[in-house]
Design a protein that fits this description.
Elements (H helix, E strand, L loop, with lengths): L5 E4 L2 E3 L9 E3 L11 E3 H4 L8 E4 L8 E2 L5 E2 L1 H7 L4 E5 L5 H16 L4 H16 L11 E5 L11
Parallel strand pairs: 1-5, 5-8
Antiparallel strand pairs: 2-3, 3-4, 6-7, 8-9
Helix pairs in contact: 3-4
Length: 158
């Protein structure tokens, strides 16, 4: 995972605010290895990421438990602890259709050279302009950027 600038995980997510280390992403069961198919906080923190951006396109990936001065323990924090420079996470349930539209615009703006924070903001503005009052921001506004989002991600063609 250290070779990628951007890691996008479009999966199911779940948050356990009582026991945040149990929060995780549902990737899929591999019967050959007897893996349970869950990537939980306690596993993520043992991985190493050098990504500029990890996008957690899943429900509740930014939801967690406030741990005093340590801040909020959640999936986003786990990826930051593991070396990611920034994380896009959701503060509530994600709607598949509008999340896809948001992510499409987000990555378009990144490819055009916008910094991550501006790209996410502009993607939301694009959806607001496209759907107006027809589709409330509840369906696409859950995503926030955590970490160092002030830099563009140079994408070289390989």
């Amino acid at each position: 995972m250290t070779d990628f600038k951007i890691i996008h995980l479009a999966v199911h997510g779940f948050a356990d605010t009582r026991f945040p280390e149990r929060s995780g992403l549902i990737l899929g069961i591999d019967s050959a290895t007897r893996d349970d198919g869950l990537l939980q906080i306690r596993e993520i923190t043992r991985l190493r990421f050098d990504a500029e951006l990890v996008t957690l396109s899943a429900c509740d990936t930014g939801v967690g438990k406030l741990q005093g001065e340590e801040g909020v323990t959640n999936l986003a924090e786990a990826f930051l602890v593991s070396g990611s420079k920034s994380v896009v996470a959701s503060l509530w349930s994600a709607d598949d259709t509008y999340t896809h539209a948001l992510m499409d615009r987000f990555y378009t703006h990144i490819a055009e050279g916008a910094d991550q924070a501006s790209a996410l903001r502009e993607a939301k503005v694009d959806l607001l302009a496209k759907y107006g009052k027809e589709v409330p921001p509840y369906y696409w506004g859950a995503f926030v950027l955590i970490g160092d989002g002030g830099s563009p991600i140079p994408l070289g063609v390989q």
